[in-house]
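Q: My labmate handed me this sequence with no annotations at all. I'd like to see what the chain might look like in three dimensions before we decide whether it's worth expressing. Could you predict it?
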Amino acid sequence: MGTAVFTHGDTDGICSAALILAGYRNAKVWITSPVGLLKDLKNCKAEEVFILDIALSERDKEDIFTEFERLSQGKAVYIDHHPLPDGVMSGDLPCTEVIIDQNCSASELTYYWLKEKIPDEMSRVALFGAISDYCDDTDFVRNEIDVYDKRTIYLEAGLLSQCLGESKGDYAFKKEMINKLSRGKMPSETDRVIKRARSATKKEWKLHKFVRDNVVIHSGIAVVEDIPRGISPNKAAKFAVGVGGSSLGLGIKKRDGHVDISVRKKRDFYLDLNRALRTIALRYDGSGGGHPTAAGVRIPAEHLEAFIDTLAKEVSSI
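A: Here is what I predict for the chain of 318 residues:
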């Protein structure tokens, strides 16, 4: 019973959860993902539920809606900035409250929803989430950042983002950071944040060199495979675009029987990655999606080459 928070494990999700915790002190937090959301919701018995920064899986949407409807017998609030599955409108979600806007971060949306219940200083946490998710070109960020020193806010956001990137599976640490942020503690006040941020940044420079040395151009797409352990494929995909001089970059990590593929593109390249990857992933018994400019998929490993070929055909048609 009580209050449950399900949030994404990246910086935007962590900051969104910290904002909720600032207003709902007794809430219990779970770190989840689009792939794991359905299972987590099925196990939830809380009277009050918040789902934050979690894209809805195309494959699981009907079952997720069933769980939303069940949880809405109490209170179920969905706050997100990802595109909804094809054919789904925000009014279709059977939650007691739905707050969706693709033009800003989940942290910004959460802050505005809670603004009257939390201290004004919590706007700093919303700024960290927005900056870390590359959603800093909004009126909220431009206005709120003037309250502080821009360099300091970006430093704190960078430390937090790099640190959490280094803490992928360390859910205990992420929950600790949610609690600290909810109480007004800054990332720079925690020695482990600085240590992990330094470690992540060193790895990032090594990754940049790895991408330069290993990027392969496949039908106009810059592809990087066999990314070193402990490194996110997201950054590899981003670096691949620049290093490969391509409109699209893929960072690929092989796991037990499947592959995780992060996809990034140049800002001016006209392809909605969320829509394209959702569609293509379903053809290969996988799931995918994200944002129009940054998305990812998980598919069985045996379909990797076919997936890249299909994506390449989509790119070549533009």
